[in-house]
Every structure is written in C-alpha cells, then in structure tokens.
Amino acid sequence: MKNLFTTFLFLILISNTNAQIDIIHPPNWWVGFENQNLQLLVKGNKISEFEVEIDYPGVEIKKIHKADSPNYLFLDLNVSNRTLPGNLKIKFKRGRKELNHNYKLENRRNTSQQNEGFDSSDVIYLITPDRFANGDYSNDIIRGLKENKIDRKDNYARHGGDIIGVTQNIDYIKEMGFTSIWLNPVLINDMKKGSYHGYATTDYYTLDPRFGSMNDYLEFSEKASQNGIKLIKDIIVNHCGLYHWWMKDLPFDDWLNFQEIYLKSNDKTIEENTVYSNHRRSTIQDIYGAEVDYRGMLDGWFVPTMPDLNQKNKFMAEYLIQNSIWWIETLNLSGIRQDTYPYAEKEFLSDWAGRIMNEYPKFNIVGEEWSYNPLRIAYWQEGNNNKDGYKSNLKSTMDFAMQKAISEGILEEENWNTGLIKIYENLANDFYYSDPKSLLVFNDNHDMSRIYTQMKEDVSKTKMAIGLMLVLPRIPQILYGTEILMEDSAKPGDHGLIRTDFPGGWINDNTNAFSGENMNDNQLEMQNYIKTILNFRKNSKAIHYGKTLHFAPVEGVYLISRKKDDETVIYIVNKNKSSKELSLNRFNQLGVNNMVFTEVLTKEKYKWANSITLKKNSSIILTNR
Predict the structure, then answer these.
(1) Residues identified as active-site
(2) How many other C-beta atoms can be found within 10 angstroms of the C-beta atom of residue 11?
(3) Which ranges in 434-585 belong to alpha helices (H)?
(4) What's the whole-model pTM score?
C-alpha cells in the first residue's frame, strides 16, 4: 500500500512538473482599441485540463474554448475602455498545481501618434532584405536553425542581408527620393532551404534572427519615421511554413486545408501527397463557376512546404487578424502588403481589412491580385459596386494590368492594336475603378523579370517605362536595384537571379551603388534619372492628386498630363527611331498655350506654342513650375 501511494504521488509530481505554458499569443496587448475583445491562444502540455482565473480591473473572461488538441486553450477576454495599462496576472489551476503568467497591457497610440498610410504622394522602394545589405555579420548563421549556411554564389541560398543593413542605408534611400519602404517578409522562416525570401513563416510573432533582433526592427522603424519614410510590412495569411511550431500539434482538426493529407504524410511523401491550388482565381467572381473549382482554388496548397491555412476556422481567423494589428501597433506601420490576396477566404479578408481600418483609419493596405484583367483587380477595391454585394474594405490593389500594358506598350512595334495604344486603353479602364489613384503600379517586383531585362537592356526604353509609371494617377513601387539597371537576362524570370545582391551591401564588393564606386555610365545615368524624377515628384501636387488628361497615341507619340491648381506636368514619349516635330495644335485642351515648361531632367526650356522637337526613342517630363 505504501509503495502504491508513493507511485501515485510520484505520478502527480511528474504530471505537475511537465505542466507549463509554452506560448501565449498575442504576447502582449494594448488598451484603448475600438474592438475591446481579445482572444489569447494558450499552448502548454495538457493546458486544457486547467481552470483559468483573471483578477484585473476592466478585464473579464467571456469564454474559455478547448481545442481538439488537449494542449491548447483559447481565452475570450473583454478589455474595457476603463482598463488601465499594467501587468495582468493570468492564473491556470489544476488541483494543487498553479501556473501564473504576467501579461502586459499598454496604452495604444492615439491617432496623432500613428503614422500616415502610404498613398499616391509616395514612391515605394521594395527590398528583399537578404539581398540588400549585410549590416551585421554575426547573425548570418544561427545555430539550431535548419538552414545554417551563407553562400552568395547560390541564388537560392541565404546571402546575409539584414535589417541593420537597411537601417544603415536609409540616408541613401531618402536621398534617392523614396518615401516608403516595403520589405519582403522578415519573420522567422526556419525551413531547410530557400528561407531567404521570407514567405514560409514558422512563427507569426518572431523575427528571423538572421535578419536581426526585435530591437533592430524597432530601431529601423523609428529611424525610417524620423526620416519621413513610411514602413510597409509584407504579411501572408494564406499559408505558413511547413515547420511552423504548430505543425507538430495542430490545435483543431480543420486548422489547415487538406489537413488529413498532411497528417498522413512525412517529409519524404508530402510532395507527392500535396493537393495543389488550381490557381483559377476567376472562380472568386464567376457567377457560373462550379463549387469544386472554387474550393480547388482556395483550399489547395501553393507548394508542399507551405501549408494552406483555413480561415474558415474562427480561431485561425482571429489569430491572423490580431497578429496584423499587433505588428501595426508594435512598429507604428504605415501599411501592409498582403500576399496572394485572392487565395484566402474572401469573407475573412473583408473582416481582416475592416478590423484593421476601423482601428487605424489613416492606414493603407494593398492586396496582391496577380491578374491582368481590370475587372478582377477592381473587385477587391473598397467602394467597387460588386454585383454579389461583396465589400472588401481594401483601399489598394496591385495593378498588374497596367504593369503589363506599360511593358508591352513600350516594347512592341507601333500598330493599330499594339504598342502605346495598350497603355492608353488600359488607362481608359480607370472609369471602372472606385479609386484609381490608390492602385499600386510597378514595372517589376521580386517575382517577375526586372524592367531592364523586359526592355531587352535598352536604357532609353527602360527610362520610358519608369518615367511613365511615375506620372500616372497611381502609387508607384520600384524594386531595389532598378535604379542601377539590375537585370536577370541570363535566365529571365528566375527568382534567385531577380533578387540579386545590391552591390556595395557587403564588405569588399567591387562595385558600390551606395557611393557610386566602379559603376558604369549607364548605371550612373539611370540612378540620376530616377533620383531626379523622384525628388521632383515628391513636391508635385499635380502628380500626387491632380486631374489626368491623355491623348490617344499617334505616329508613335503618346502624351499624358497631370494638373492641379496652377501646376501642370506633361509626359511625352516618342518611340520613333528618328526625331519628331510634334505639332501642338491637337493638345489645345491642355490650356497651356504659350506657357514655358522646363524639362525635369535636363532643365531645358520648352515654349508651348506651335510645335516642339522630340528626340528619337526618348521621353520627357515637362513642368511649368
């Protein structure tokens, strides 16, 4: 009997010793939100067997949810508007065992302290952090992570760029004229290979230590803000990384799409077992579409290493919404770029964007809809009159249609239905958008061939494409290295090659684009071209918010103007292989007769009278300021 009692006591002690709280997400929160509800994910060994108590003025437990796994609890709290900041003690009790957790509540920023969202007055600099600059060599390799080597000769390995590297070069970014920075994801990607790109998150609340510490991230945000640069965070709610911490113990049986297939697989069989998305994005709006195709689009995985998250699970949905709000408040963000937008449940996306915008009215979110059809792009924008009644709450979408039109319009031979007419007709589609100037336009990004490669390494054509993009009624984005003619011509479209290292970002680089050392004439010319236009654009209200007037292209010449109050900006492109004497009679509607304009780049003067001479294969930007 004594031995039996001893054994029983030993089992109790072992059980109590093993009980612990491993994770509480969000790790902290704020008082003063419009939405006073807070849901905590709690993970710990058999934590569902514990009772939970909170005794803190203004905070109330509304409901406690058990998951399918015994190792999770989801706590629904109400944090009333009378709650004061402080350390909230959460008690977990099971018999004589008690676990305590101090949970921090802070004051949220008031509206005047929140950064403004990005808009058409901005130009966004898109950076792949691993490939921009290595500011801290000590974090290149972190023991215990699955990918722990640096190899700059391998386009798909890690190269060592980090957040400190970006912070150290904010002066360069500012001097170039950029007003916003979009970093590709920097949360931890503890994957076996290809982790440099950041799109396979393995913890939504942890920065990848190879990119730096949380203090590095906060310092970067603060320095950007001090320099008048807005910070945009790249977020992914559609999928996570295969080695996310919850993959070893999923909370619910429907946490993932095709979860049952994942559970029957291992590292060797997951690739052959994966059910892939059919990528038929048109099924989202298709009034005739079959349910099997619709679900095949949403539920299928992108790749075997990126499990597809099920936002229909209300706990998953709340987790993702709170995570976005947590990062906005923590970093004082100006915006979010949401990856693979149509692949998540659209009802969830509406709730997600709506919750964010309700708390942060000055904020902006851009969604990636990789479609060349303006109808589909417009569907996702707030204010669009969708026949199915869908309300997106999304201010901005990525304008892939315009990107394609500019590339083809500049590159193609002029004909009735090719060349510049594609740009003209695509811009004419703006009547369908609820807010065209809030669309994000670009010549390229981290997922597509660089503009210099698209233009067959023709510097003049590259200038045409970039210059036009920068005067459109849009929010322009430029990929790092575009200013120095970085290219992927050896293997167009290859992601590793597109995301080449920015020269000068590493010690002993032969070329330094930050200082101009050992750059060729074409690179220096393009760098100056973009710098001059961006710094002009920064102060041009006509480009930011002005009215747009354009004229159908004739004989290889296209003209578009922007006007606000007494400021007029005119962009003209001449694709002819010889100079062109352009009669101005056709453009009387501009109302600028006899005005004197200055060319932004060359400072050459043009009097708007009878005609002007355009150089061959060139473009100009004129201002009356």
Answers:
(1) 339, 368
(2) 10
(3) 451-454, 459-471, 495-498, 521-537, 541-545
(4) 0.96
